[in-house]
Structure formats: C-alpha cells, structure tokens
Amino acid sequence: MWLNGVGSFDFTIGSWLFNHSEKVPCDIEGGPAINPELSLLGFDDVRPDYDLFGLDYSLGHTWSWCPRKCPFCVVPKQINSKIHKSIWSFHDSKFKKICLLNNNTFSDPQWRETFEEIWGANLIVRDENGYDLRLIDEEKAEALRKTKFQGYIHYAWDLMEDEVQVLRGLKIAPKGMVYVLVGFNTTIEEDLYRCQKIHDLSHDPYVMPYNRGNRTLRAFKRFIDTRMYRKYKTLKEAWGDYR
Is residue 200 one of the residues assigned to a domain? Predict the structure, then answer.
C-alpha cells in the first residue's frame, strides 16, 4: 500500500509483511519481515487519514491478539495486546465497507460487539484473515451468516492435529474458502485428505505452500485452483490425472 500524497516529511516509515516484499529506502523499517517485535512508535492508535490512500473501505483492527502459538506464524512473535477496540476508532462513516485486520476475531471476549457495530452501520466486510474454526459454535456461525461479506468468508486448516475441532467448525460454518497450509509438516496424502474433507462439506480449499520453491506443492496449488476435481469422485483420482 502506497501513499497518494507527495511532499516533504519529517521521516518515512516502511512496513514489510513478507521477506520477498519489495522494499524502498525509508528512515524507519518495520513489519514482520524486518522485526516482528518492533512497535509503531505510538502510531498504532492514530486514526488513518484515508485521503492519503486510494481505498473505498476503512482499514483497522478491533482485536490483535491470537492465543495460538503456531510455529509457522509470525503473529506470536509480534507485540499484540488483549485490548478490544471499537470499529469507530478507525472506521470512517463515508465508507460502506470495512476491512478487519484482526488476527483471531473469535478469541476476543467482546467479539459480538464488533459484529453488532458492523450490523448497526450496515457495513460490508472485507476480511482476508481466516476465522478460527476451532472456536466456531452455533452463535458465531449465525453471526457470520448475518454479516454481509465482500467475496468469500475465510477459514483455515493448517495442522492435521486439529482435525476434530476443525471439522466440527466446518460442519456448522457458512460456506467459505478454507486456507490449507501445505509443505510445513504434512504429506501430500494428508493435503489431499484435508482438501477432500473441505470439499465434502461444501467449502472450497485454498492451498498455501509453505515452501514456495517446491515444484510438487506449486503444482498441487495449481491443481486445486483449477477446481477440476469437482468433475471426479475423489480428489485423489483427479490429482492422478492432473499429474
């Protein structure tokens, strides 16, 4: 994301999300790709000046904490508070859409207040983070169904050890796209198994290779992205033909 404005500045800050993110010269570098423990010098709670950005939605978080300690994730290394915030701390009423940057919305004891504020303002939600299926119950599933989303609702199934809880959540969650981490500590057989279960429960898998340089994993992602498996009885059969 780049500022639209030009001019003279006291100093510039660059935030880089990934190691492969394009970097430009700046006075202060931060973000997960540089140092996940580096704070924003008190700017975290500054209300965005949306005139500087080419956006048609508000952008911010009501809850940054995540209780999970996933070994592949940078979030546990970041400084995240357990402080709930209102959407009005960053939302501008001129927008009809809002993008939530919460790391784990349903781990917030006040999660329902966030949804009630969204419903009250009749907002459409852009939400790229995956809702934690292990925390979804009937009340949370109904809240998701009541909310207007732009595009897919996103969930995640990263580890095989979470199968029982994830499947329980998938069975009651409204239809969405499920992020599937592959190549971290699972085999291709386990990856096929997870994608098959997700498909059987009327959701769409979205493969995310942990090792972007692995040719088999890149091929597996392309295979899932084509959705050609829908023409077959099983993903295993479709994968065999695809290869």
Answer: yes
Q: Would residue 120 count as lying in a domain? A: no
Q: For 177-206, write each residue's pLDDT tens digit.
A: 999 999 999 999 999 999 999 999 999 999
Q: What is the pLDDT of residues 131-174, one digit of tens each?
A: 999 999 999 999 999 999 999 999 999 999 999 999 999 999 99
* Residue partners of 176: CB distance under 8 A and separation at least 6: 152, 153, 154, 155, 203, 204
136 and 112 in contact (C-beta within 8 Å)? no
- Whole-prediction pTM: 0.86
Q: Is residue 179 part of a domain?
A: yes
In Å, the largest CA–CA distance within the chain is: 61
Full domain range(s) for residue 221: 153-243
- How many structural domains comprise the chain? 1
DSSP assignment string, 136-167: --HHHHHHHHHSEESS--EEEE--GGGHHHHH
